[in-house]
Amino acid sequence: MLARTVSVPAATLAATTLTVAATLAAPPGVAAAGSVAHGRVVSADPVDTTPHVLDGIVNAITLVGGTVVVGGSFTEVREARDSAVLERTNIFAYDLATGRIVHGFEPYLNGAVTSLAAGADGTVYAGGGFSATDGVTTRKVVRLRLSDGSPVTGFRAHAFGGSVTSLVRSGSRLYLGGDFTHVGRTPRTALARVDAVTGAVDPEFAITPGAPRGSRTRVHAMALSGSRLAVDGSFTTLDGLSRPQLGLIDVGAARAKVADWRTDAYAPSCSAAFPSYVRGLDFAPDGRYFVVVTSGGPGGPRKLCDSAARFETHVRGGTRPTWVNHTGGDSLYAVAVTGSAVYVGGHQRWLDNPTGSDSAGPGAVARPGIGAIHPTTGRALSWNPTRDRGIGVKAFLAHPAGLLVGSDTIRLGHEYHARIGMFPLP
């Protein structure tokens, strides 16, 4: 099937082309969600150029210069205006401006990719459940060259005892989150910082999550703004300090330490099927606040089950969320904060639904699979492109030309966009 052609105003196309060109002209660097501010909400009409992932799920997206790298669990892709099916195993790359799939970048990872981070010098870091890349041992994390897909042999940050679910790069440092127990021979429970070139474990970062909710300690998501690293996951302590499922770490000093910031908002239990229910998180571009999204099942207006919640970054001691937006019983997995909007994705049916219980309560608004929230009021914006709900959105990436979306379904904005799509800035 080919992508349906839609009519986009010439001015919109011109503006998007200019913005993409500016992105391509910029030097390669980290394009992490939360680092890009938008002055307005993105269009609800997806661009027609994004390629299609023909099976599985997209878990992660990053941008290296003008190249989009996509990770997940899949085996086949194709370009939007070409019928040729290409084999790609759990990772591929394409040109942001044209949608053309990058040939030559065809690494074979023998397990799912769940996290990506842009590297220097035309490279990308991938984390997940794999143990080898093209037959070379790369346990759970690898640095790949975009030029030919080969692993960078000098990078040796092998993780043992579990997978890598989250990656954040900051200059010469790379943060790893997951449910591993060691990096190389160094004990590190679920969280580590390594040298971005060599993969050597940083002895000045030894923050230890503990007292898990469930059977394993896991860091599910991370985001970095300035000197503060936000982490969430299946833990209730950080270095022995009470931090139920969410905490901030000060990484600006010579030795990292747990920040004097805490919340008990995620201390209550949700459904027994979700002992830990925090999922995605993202900082605002200016770093003043961040937003956490959750699973958990219907919990009512007094709990943060199945919700998005805003927290202020620079407060001390205990804090409550500034606002909470409930889905009324459906999971949210991904969030991107651009200043003009808080984009949330999962398999939700509604937003503004605090009293719903797998139903639309008073005031609920339909936002199937994807939606946007006002950063100040916490109420749903009118933006409502819709998508097939499926498992849900697992990845967002805000960049200067718009918002990339990765999921497990094939309809986005009422069009065929298999598992990846992009909403441009109008």
- In percent, how helical is the residue content? under 10%
Please identify the top-level CATH class: Mainly Beta
Number of strands: 40
Our count of domains comes out at 1
Strand order of the largest sheet: 19-20-23-24
User: In terms of structural class, how would the helical and strand content be classed?
Assistant: mainly beta
Q: What radius of gyration results from the CA coordinates?
A: 20 Å
Overall morphology: globular
Report the sheet-strand fraction: 35-45%
Give a short account of the largest sheet: 4 strands, antiparallel
Mean pLDDT over the residues: 92
Going by CATH, what is the homologous superfamily? YVTN repeat-like/Quinoprotein amine dehydrogenase
Protein name: PKD domain containing protein
Pfam families: DUF5122
Organism: Planobispora siamensis
Keywords: Signal
